[in-house]
From TrEMBL:
This is Elongation of very long chain fatty acids protein. It comes from Orchesella cincta. InterPro entries: ELO_CS, ELO_fam. It is an enzyme of class 2 (transferase). One of its GO terms (molecular function) is fatty acid elongase activity. GO terms for biological process: fatty acid elongation, monounsaturated fatty acid; fatty acid elongation, polyunsaturated fatty acid; fatty acid elongation, saturated fatty acid; sphingolipid biosynthetic process; very long-chain fatty acid biosynthetic process. Coiled coil: none annotated. Keywords: Fatty acid biosynthesis, Fatty acid metabolism, Lipid biosynthesis, Lipid metabolism, Membrane, Transferase, Transmembrane, Transmembrane helix. The chain crosses the membrane at residues 38-59, 71-88, 120-141, 148-168, 174-192, 204-229, 241-263. The lineage of its organism: Eukaryota, Metazoa, Ecdysozoa, Arthropoda, Hexapoda. Belongs to the ELO family. It is found in: Membrane.
Amino acid sequence: MATKFIEVPIVEPSFGLKVADFERNFPLTYWRQVFGDWWQISAYVSGLYVLLLFGGRWYMSSRAPFKLNKLLTFWNVGLAIMSIYAFLRVAPEFFWVMLGKNGFHNTICEWPEHNGATAFWSWILALSKIIELGDTAFIVLRKQNLLFLHWYHHITTLMSWWVMYHWYEPVQQWYVVMNSFVHSFMYTYYALRSLKIRVPRPIAMFITTIQLLQMVAGVTVSIYSYWIMSENPASCPHRNWFGLKVSFAIYVPYTILFAKLFIDSYVVKKKPAEAVKNGGAQKNGVYAKKEA
């Protein structure tokens, strides 16, 4: 991680967003240093997660599945509300910068403006990657089909967000906005399913589509970063090669895995017996599984 730590000052937004005192006073530099000094926590948590995941599956193999319907609804509603509110707080700055001079470039390479709402809720979203590991507990305890994509996505997202938070690159605006936007729809969908509300297939397909587009966007901004950092590094002062390598390592496999999920779920026609055997699709692709 041999790269320069760049301060990102928090200023009052010039585009009319009202910032609460707790957002305005968020100690961004302090928490960036904490994440940098203690990034290993994400590795330890991921290791424990894997142990509990496979240990839990072994424990449940000879036991009847739990229903947990009410708790599942509460869980999904809570994460949906958090994601929606976080998106409403982080999106204004992103679109303000995007629509301004050199907008696309600045969202990737520079911090021309940064406010407390974006800083605080980006931090909340980073912490939420630990909370979201609880999604897997419901799958294991309810004895539902667990896809590799599900737990691979949880582990790599948690570790990459924690590792990259220290450097706090401008491109992370893309990640927090896309993540909170997609999760707003995804957890709302899960909440409806847990309430036994039938959701039309096109909606599930829409959510899987925006998940895939999120990954494609991640690859796209990484390719642009590589090009501009190679051709004119002075014009991209707030990006570093370490963060770029992490971005490629995360988003390229994600794009492949989510493309496969989309094809398996909506393009390739499965026989009824095969669909029942597979238990439907599951988490992180909206997976058309039965939620309750």
